[in-house]
Amino acid sequence: MKTLTLLRHAKSSWKDASLQDCERPLNRRGQRDAPIMAERIKQTGIRPSLILSSPAERAWTTAKIVAREIGYPAEFLQQEDRLYHASVRSLVKLIAEQDTGFNSIMIVGHNPGLTDFANYLLPSLTDNIPTCGFVSFTIDLKDWNLDRDIETESVIYEYPKRVEKKPDRSRQSGDTLR
User: Fold this and answer.
1) 98-126 CB burial, b ≥16 within 10 A, e <16
2) Quick check: helix, strand or coil at residue 68?
3) Each residue's pLDDT expressed in tens, for the chain with a length of 178 residues
4) Domain limits for position 9
5) Is the bond preceding 73 in cis, omega lying within 30 degrees of 0?
6) What pTM does this model have?
7) For 132, phi and psi rounded to 5 degrees?
8) Cα dist. 81→56, 60, 90, 147 in Å?
């Protein structure tokens, strides 16, 4: 059994127009939401054995905040260049390369790739994973090859506005993934 969690970076700042896209930091809302969503990740029982993050400042900062809040050792965080604006194909390939000894992987990245990938795994799941939102799939697998028919045991989908309104709601599913 494997758990794959897709976490979109927290809200970023557009204040400094001189910054490159990958250099944009979190804004005030992002700094507020990241620890709140990390606590929600912790409450749901998600315990990643590997966290891979886009090197973009907003994603890397989100990954560090989440790691700290859930008790994941910061020195084990890994930046992965291929996560910056990753497509579904590149995400499938990257995840398939991970060691089978990791039973729970968290990917910290960007839209539209994360939303597209979530919908690849479970069609029509969402139109958009909001900033700092996460989707966690429990999948009956022995390896990380997601390019075949697989079934989820459960799906947890949370985002800041949902947590503010209904902190104990999550979507459960037994749908077949592609």
Assistant:
1) beeeeebbbbbbbbebbbbbbbbbbeebb
2) helix
3) 999 999 999 999 998 989 999 999 999 999 999 999 999 999 999 999 999 999 999 999 999 999 999 999 999 999 999 999 999 999 999 999 999 999 999 999 999 999 999 999 999 899 999 999 999 999 999 999 998 888 887 899 999 988 766 544 444 444 444 4
4) 2-13+21-177
5) no
6) 0.91
7) 65, 10
8) 9, 11, 11, 21
Structural domain count, the chain: 1
Please report, for residues 71, 85, 90, the alpha-carbon distance to residue 22 in angstroms, rounded to integers and kept in the order given: 26, 10, 19
CATH of the domain at 26: 3.40.50.1240
Tokens (6 digits) for 77: 């965080």
Judge whether 122 and 178 are in contact, CB under 8 Å.
no
